[in-house]
Amino acid sequence: MSEPRTSHHTEEITRLTVEWAAEILEEPEVTARDNFLDLGGHSILALRLCRYAAERFGVEYDIMTLFENDLATAAEDLATKVSAAPSNPDGRV
Amino acid sequence: MSPTVNLGISSFGFAFGEDRDVATSAGDYVDNPERVINWGFRTFHRAPDDTHATQLATEASRRALERSGTTAAELDLVVLASSDLPEYSYRDEAAALARCLGVERTQTLFLQEGCGAGVHGLYYVAASMTMQPEINRVLFIAVNRVSEFHRNRMNVVNAVLSDAAAAVVIERGRSSNRWLATEQFTEPENCDLLRVDFGGTVNPLPPQGWSSRTAPGGHEAIRARFGDDPATLQRFLRNRYRRLVEVIDHACARAGLGREDLTHLIYLNDSATSINAVAEPLGIPLEHTNAELAPDHGHMGAADQLVSFGQLLERGELSSGDIVVLCGISTERWSATLLRV
Predict the structure, then answer these.
(1) What is the pTM of this model?
(2) What is the phi-psi region of residue A27: left when phi exceeds 0, alpha when psi lies from -120 to 50, beta otherwise?
(3) Residue A24 lies in a domain
(4) Which residue from B minimizes the CA distance to A66?
């Protein structure tokens, strides 16, 4: 049996989220368990992360989720939005 | 275009609270010091408990007056901009400063619009000098002295709040550091965002046991205002920077200049990334901003921009003819002032 499609999405989006956060924060040691604000993130960097997501998926992170949770949770929330986006009927990542 | 009024800054004077190391002090203010340390500030200034805004402003003023060879009696106007709580209710803080300086029977003005007052306050100086030809010498002071009872200096915004004053003597007919234009506008919708709920007429006193150390900070205020409305939050955050560029464009138009004429940008003391978010659309390189100075001061409220301008001049990083834009945000008020070195 193949894995549910959304778990692939979440995995890939989490990987990208960590990669983007590391680039934006200039912090190579970022993990999915880190919080964006604890790493020195702030509003303008969050907006840049949102722009990356919008360019790739057509939807953006929820900034409060990004501020108040770890990157994995923000990625999971984004994956849900990607799957639900009307412009992405196949739920492709 | 601005009406023709020829005025410029002839001297600067600064006063700082004691230098404190952010990394070793953050734990005294917040439970997650790493977050504060990662903002990138090295030092902030904390005034001793018995040193308040008037003392800082007086010290900075005396230095500025001494450097320009001006006596208190020669001043025609004293404008004080203060970005934290006044020392007392029902008192004119500008009058208190004038008394400390020995200024008698002279016009004074007290501005309280927050951190941007050190930028847009120069408009009121220029306007007064335009309307009153007899005003030749003005003392303008921007001061920030955090009331730690009311505010936790490490959890209001993403910058460590700092205690300092910057004073400048402004003279009619001075061609260097010449004022060119000031523009400002207000969008009032979110003017409550950073308010302190206690100490005014609505709630004169805090509840028993209330402490700024444990009270909700700026992040909680953002959540309360925008937590259920991510689209509005995005728009609010984006507009902070868009509006800055917009008000700078307005100031350029007022001065008959274009963005390409701007050589330096001095924003409030924020992270380099945030300063760059303002500078980049204007084509100003980060090296021509206050990004390098900010980590050694923290956010000194209304005093940021004049401290940076004076220090860039002292360091020889500005040349005659450079066009410098000072810009800032109070809560929902954007302002920009252009100066020609």
Answers:
(1) 0.92
(2) beta
(3) yes
(4) B230
Contacting residues of B for A37, CB less than 8 Å apart:
35, 219
Tell me how far the alpha carbon of residue B34 is from its chain's centroid. Answer: 26
Q: Which residues of B touch A22 (CB under 8 A)?
A: none
Give me the domains of chain B, ranges plus CATH numbers. Answer: 7-175 (3.40.47.10), 181-193+213-340 (3.40.47.10)
The verdict on residue A93 lying in a domain is: no
- Residues 6 or more apart in contact with residue A82 via CB below 8 angstroms: A9, A13, A57, A58, A59, A88, A91, A93
**How far apart are the C-alpha atoms of B226 and A77, rounded to whole Å?**
17
| A90 domain residue, yes or no | no
Look up residue B299 and give its DSSP letter: B
Per-chain mean pLDDT for chain A = 86
Q: What are phi and psi of A42, to 5 degrees?
A: -150, -175
Q: Would you call B239 exposed, middle or buried from its count of C-beta atoms within 10 A (0-12, 13-18, 19+)?
A: middle
**Segment B255-291, tens digit of pLDDT:** 999 999 999 999 999 999 999 999 999 999 999 999 9
Question: Could you give the 3-state DSSP secondary structure of residue B241?
Answer: helix
Measured CA to CA, the distance from residue B275 to residue B200 in angstroms comes to 33
Q: Hey, are the CB atoms on A68 and B223 less than 8 Å from each other? A: yes
CATH number of A12's domain:
1.10.1200.10
Name the residue range of residue A26's domain.
5-84
Number of domains in chain A: 1
Question: What DSSP character marks residue B288?
Answer: G
Return the amino acid letter for A83: S
B230 contacts in chain A (CB < 8 Å): 62-64
In this structure, what token pair is assigned to residue B173? 């007919």
Assigned token pair, B214:
């444990």
